[in-house]
Structure formats: C-alpha cells, structure tokens
Write a structure and sequence with these properties.
alpha/beta, Rossmann fold, 8 strands, Alpha/beta fold hydrolase, AB_hydrolase_1
C-alpha cells in the first residue's frame, strides 16, 4: 500500500489542504469528493489512494467549502460560482506540479465539478470516472437529500449517525469503522464556521445541478460512469441520463450498493478505475 501525505498549498485566495501519494508515477489522477456533511478528501478516498498510489500519482483535495481547506473571505457565492472556484482549485494544483493533463475521478458533487472542469479546460483532462455523479436528470431531490441539506435544523450525533448509514446500502460493510466515520465527519461538520457555511453551499433551484445536454454532447473524453443501483442520494437515473448524451461513455451499475461505491464495492471500484485508465500491469488487490 502506498502511504499518502497531507499537504498544504496556496491556491488563489485560500490555502488548500490535500492528500498525495505516488509522486514518482507519471500518470496522475485527481480524486474529487462529494458534498456530504463532513466530507473530506481523506474520508472519501483514503483506501482508494493507498491502493492506486502504488501505480499512479494521486491527488485528492479538500474542495473549497469542505474539510480543512481554508474558507475564502467571500462566501456569498452561487452554486455555480462555488463550482468554478473548485475547478480553478484543481487547475492551480496542476500548475503547481506542472501537470499538463490529468484524469479525474469525481464522486457525487465531485462528478459535477469534473464535468464542469472539462467544459472549462477540455485540453487539460484525458479521462473521467463519474461515481454516483450528479448532473443528470432525476425525479427531484430524495428524502435523504432533504435530510442532508437540512441537517443543522437538528444537528445531533444520533441524527448524524442515521444520515451516514443512508449513504450505504448496508452499513455492515464498514463494520466497526462506522463509529470512527461518524465521529470524524461529525467533528468536521460541527466546527462553527462550517455550521454557518454548509447550508449555503447547495443550490436554491435543483435545476442548477444539471449539466446542459448541449454541453454533454460536446464532451469527447472517454467517460466511465459507476453507480450504486440502490443509491438514495443521487439516484441511478442521473447516470442513465448522462450516459444517454455523453458521446464516448459507458455505465456500470452495481447491485446491493448505495452512494459510496468506493467503500461498499471497494475492490470492484478500484479494478474498474484501473482498467478504464488503460495503463499496463493491472494492480494486484490481494
């Protein structure tokens, strides 16, 4: 397993905290987390980075507005302004490492950011993996999403524990790690600055989450969509909608799996990413 380091870098008007491993490898992957309460690069991608860091240069930032990345002075931003700021955050990290092109793996909100990154700087990105990604058409917000975005109306540890279990088809997959996940993420989300900021990060109109069909059909990069069949936060219909319009895409649906494919189906997820990126010498997961 590759050991990752937690680092800090000034990116524009704020300092980004990010995880990095496999610095001696030439092929780079950026991992972009979602918008769940208490989400950080480490909480989303720890195990994934340790395995894929054996073969790839992996970078996973705490996206601005989340984790330990510095909160910018101006937070009076629309959802799309936050999205643009996060795209620029990735581009600034790429510039720091003189990375001309990279691959993106985006989970949920991270998928929306990945698609917007390709729309903004298409020559910078080679391949995209979208996991439980937003951006496609669904039947509207689910009850789970409503509970998440309104968490601070009753921010108890008990409600938070319930909310975390909703991300998975069956929380038994994480075993004894559940309480650690709950404790670590609850500690992040209950910081005073985040209590004030978090509810403002979501769009007032769900249509703001959608990627226009006119944009999707112009994305020529190879795209792999991976979705948990029982995902209750971003239903599979989002990926079904995206794959319909992306011209060079494929979709894998995984049964008995919710929103956290990288945790619930960890080995399968890593295999799919590794195979899709197409480099030689498949990873050994034993």
């Amino acid at each position: 397993m590759a050991k990752y380091e937690t680092k800090r870098l000034r990116t524009g008007d704020f300092e980004t905290v990010y995880c990095e491993a496999g610095t001696h490898h030439s092929e780079t992957i950026f991992f972009l987390h979602g918008s769940g309460p208490g989400a950080t690069a480490e909480s989303n991608w720890k195990n994934t980075m340790e395995v894929l860091g054996e073969k790839y240069h992996v970078i996973a930032p705490d996206l601005v507005g989340f984790g330990n990345t510095e909160i910018p002075e101006n937070t009076n931003l629309t959802f799309w302004q936050w999205t643009t700021l996060r795209v620029q955050q990735v581009l600034n990290l790429m510039d720091h490492y003189n990375i001309e092109t990279t691959n993106l793996v985006g989970n949920s909100m991270g998928g929306i950011i990945s698609l917007n990154a390709v729309m903004q700087a298409p020559d910078k990105f080679k391949r995209l993996v979208l996991m439980g990604s937003g951006g496609g058409i669904t039947n509207g917000p689910t009850a789970e999403i409503v509970r998440m975005t309104n968490f601070f109306k009753n921010p108890t540890i008990e409600d938070f524990r319930n909310l975390i279990t909703y991300f998975m088809y069956d929380e038994k997959v994480v075993g004894d790690q559940l309480e650690e996940i709950v404790r670590n993420r609850y500690e992040v989300i209950m910081k005073p600055d985040f209590q004030k900021l978090y509810p403002t990060l979501f769009p007032a109109n769900p249509l703001e989450l959608l990627i226009p069909v006119s944009a999707l059909k112009r994305i020529t990069q190879p795209v792999l969509l991976i979705h948990g069949y029982e995902d209750q936060f971003v239903p599979k219909e989002s990926s079904l909608s995206l794959v319909e319009h992306l011209p060079n895409a494929e979709l894998v649906l995984l049964k008995q799996c919710g929103h956290w494919v990288q945790i619930e189906k960890a080995e399968r997820f890593i295999q799919l990413v590794d195979q899709f990126l197409g480099t030689k010498n498949a990873l050994s997961l034993t």
